[in-house]
Amino acid sequence: MTPTIDIYGAGLAGCEAAWQAARLGVSVRLHEMKPQKKTPAHSYNGFAELVCSNSLRSNQIFNAIGLLKEELSHLGSLIMEAAYACEVPAGAALAVDRKRFSDYITEKITSHPLITVIGEEVTDVPADPDAITVIATGPLTSDALSASIAKLTGNRYLYFYDAAAPIVDASSIDMEKAYEASRYGKGEAAYINCPMTKEEYTAFYQALITAKEAPLHAFDLPGEDDREPTVFEGCMPVEIMARRGVDTLLFGPLKPVGLPDPKTGREPYAVVQLRQENTDKTMYNLVGFQTHLTWDEQRRVFGMIPGLENAEFLRYGVMHRNTFIDSPRLLNADYSMRTRSSLFFAGQMTGVEGYIESTGSGLIAGINAARRALSKDALYFPKETVIGAMAAYISDDRVTSFQPMNANFGLMPPFEKKVKGGKRARNDAFAVRAIEEIDRFIQLHF
C-alpha cells in the first residue's frame, strides 16, 4: 500500500509540502478550509493566496532571499515554478500576478494523482501519535486548532502584528506627475514613481504621523496575559516607521536614490514607488506602504502623494495579528516536533518570515514527512545553504528571544578566512558555496 500523510493548510508551505511528498511517491490528504471558511485576512478561494504584497522580493543571487529562490528552484519547488510562470515586471525583484499564481498552484495540486484535497476545517491535532502530519495552517490558524496546538506544546503562542499595503487602480494614477522607472535603471521600467519636493514631503509626513489608526478587531487583540503588541520590522506600518524620525522614510520606502525624474533629470527629494500587481497592469500597490490607518485616513493622506490625488483604491491597507510557536524549544531542524517526531510544522507559524522562507520550510517538512512514511531517516539540509540555515535557526535552543526571521546571510556559518573585496564579494562567495552545497546534497539524497 502507498503510505499516506496528512497536511493541514493549502498555503505556500502546505502546497509545497504536499508537492514534495507526492514527488517521493507518498499519498497526501491535503486539508483546506477554504472556500467554506476563510480567515479575516483571506479573500480568494484558490490555494497559496498572497495576502500581503505580490512581491517575492529580490531575484539576485547575491541577496539571501534571491539565493534561497535559486536553491528552491534546484530542489524542484512548485512555488518557484509557479512564480516564474506568473511573473510580472518588478525590476530586480520577483513579483507575480496574484490570481494567476494561485490558480497555477491550485491546478497543479488538485490534478496530482497522489494528492487528495479535503475541504474542511481541522480543529484538533491528530490524537494518534503515530499519524504523520504536517501543520501548515498559517499565522492566522483557527482558534480551535490553536488551542489544540497550545495544549500539545504546553507553550503559549508568541505573536507579532503584520500589515498589508493598499492597491490602486492604474487608470486613476496621474502620469503627468508620475513616471515609470526602476531604481538605477535595472531591468525594464517596472515601477510607477511619484516624486515629491521637500515641501510636499514635509506636509505628507506631518499628515501621516498624526493620522488616525483603525482599532484592532477582536481576533487581533492580545490576551490579558500577553505582552504589548510587537510589530515585525519587515512589515512595519508606514506610519509607525515615520514616527521614528522625519528622515526615516527617506532611507526606506521613499528613498529617491537611483530614480531621477525624466522631467528634470534630477533625483526628487522623495519618491513613492508603485509596483505592478497583475499581468494586465491594471492594479498597482504602494511599495512599503503597509498601514493600519483607517480607510478614510488612507484616502486623505495617501491622496497627498503627487499623482495619487484622485487615485481609486481597490484595496485598502490592513493590519492583523500573526501567531507563531516557540520553535527553538519545540522543533528539530527537519521541522518535526521534538516530543512527537511524526508531527511536523511548516510556514510562518514556525517563525520563518516571508513567502519564500515559508516555502522553504514547507519543502523540508514535506520531504521529511514523506521520508518518515517511507521508513527513511530524516534529512537535515546543510547550514551552508540558506534553506538549511533557516532550519537551523528555528531549531536552535540557544535562541532565547525568538522573533520571526527573514532569510539573511547572518544565519549562515562564516568562512574560515575573511573574503576580500567587501560585502558584495562576501555575498557572492556565500552564493557560490550554497549552490555547490545544495547540488551536492541533491546528488547524494535524491
Helix content: 25-40%
Estimate the strand proportion. Answer: 15-25%
Number of domains: 2
Rg value: 22 Å
Shape field? globular
The parts where pLDDT drops under 50 for at least 5 residues are 218-228
Reading side by side through the largest sheet, how are the strands ordered?
6-2-1-7-17-16
**Judging by the overall fold, what is the CATH architecture of the largest domain?**
3-Layer(bba) Sandwich
CATH superfamily of the largest domain: FAD/NAD(P)-binding domain
- In total, the number of strands is 17
Largest pleated sheet: 6 strands, mixed
**Mean pLDDT across all amino acids:** 90
CATH topology of the largest domain: FAD/NAD(P)-binding domain
Total number of helices = 11
Under the CATH scheme, which class of the largest domain?
Alpha Beta
Order of helices and strands: EHEEHHEEHEEHEEEEHHEEHEEEEHHH
Report how far the terminal alpha carbons are from each other: 22 Å
Structural class: alpha+beta
Structure in words:
α2 runs parallel beside α9, α2 packs parallel to α11 (422-445) and α3 packs across α4. Mean pLDDT is 90; it is low at 218-228. It contains eleven helices and 17 strands. The chain has a six-stranded mixed beta sheet. Strands 10-11-12-13-9-14 form a six-stranded antiparallel beta sheet. It is 30% helix and 17% strand. It has two domains: 4-157 and 325-445, FAD/NAD(P)-binding domain (3-Layer(bba) Sandwich); 163-321, Elongation Factor Tu (Ef-tu), domain 3, CATH 2.40.30. With 446 residues, the chain is an alpha+beta fold. It is globular and about 70 Å long.
